[in-house]
Design goal:
By secondary structure, this protein is of the alpha/beta class. Helix content is about 45%, strand content about 10%.
Length: about 230
């Protein structure tokens, strides 16, 4: 498991919650390969956006389930005919669409250290994109388990991905909080007894986690009437 070097021994959990399940795209990072990102790619590489979008939707789920490589996906969506640019050039553009949400990364890092939590990423992502994002944004500094669709060959909203996450993390559903930005996925997790936070922004997620006993320690400062500055992470 990923251990944080805080200069102190590991912190024992201070609530009945022992594990956080987190989405990656939309919570820790931007989504990896969005409609807007594909529109930018179509414009940048002079591709037909409607045709590219249709081909994407026909095959992307298969890629996210780990049944296609990225090269195979691109062969179906972009390189099914000769192009004046390389696969490497397109991959670089594709990967560059990912950006971090640093305040959420900081929040999770602090919660892990403060409450002694296990951290599991439960995410729909293709293998190569997932690997790039984990490495590029240092997610392995604090994430202990990756229940990525490309590894387990099942995607959200299938309940099996959440059951696998519980088995891999070795925690009961009642000790987990799941942070997710897609309402349906929140509802599916809650149907399995996993308390869930619908993430819309950093501030509201902090408040919801605090109400569950997962404070990052800054709430008192944020709420103080004498605090004239921002204490956001």
């Amino acid at each position: 498991m990923a251990d944080l070097d805080t200069g102190e021994g590991p912190t024992k959990p201070t609530t009945g919650i022992t594990c956080l399940f987190l989405d990656i795209g939309g919570v820790l990072l931007t989504d990896g390969w969005t409609h807007e990102g594909r529109k930018r790619a179509a414009a940048n590489f002079n591709l037909d956006p409607a045709e590219m979008e249709e081909r994407h939707h026909l095959t992307f789920d298969t890629y996210e389930e780990g049944k296609l490589t990225l090269d195979e996906y691109l062969g179906r969506v972009v390189f099914y005919q000769e192009r004046p640019f390389t696969r490497a050039h397109f991959r670089t553009f594709m990967f560059a669409q990912s950006e971090p949400h640093p305040e959420m990364i900081d929040l999770v890092t602090q919660l892990k250290a403060r409450h002694g939590l296990k951290i599991a990423a439960v995410s729909n992502e293709g293998r190569e994109l997932n690997a790039y994002r984990i490495s590029e944004f240092g997610l392995d500094r604090f994430v202990d388990f990756y229940i990525s669709s490309c590894f387990v060959h099942v995607r959200k909203p299938d309940t099996d991905i959440f059951r696998l996450a519980l088995d891999i993390a070795q925690v009961p559903a009642g000790q987990v909080v799941y942070v997710e930005n897609t309402p349906m996925f929140v509802q599916v997790a809650e149907g399995l007894g996993i308390r869930s936070v619908l993430h819309t922004d950093h501030k509201s997620t902090c408040a919801q986690l605090d109400s569950l006993g997962l404070s990052n320690g800054d709430r008192a400062l944020d709420d103080s009437p004498n605090n004239t500055g921002s204490a956001e992470l």
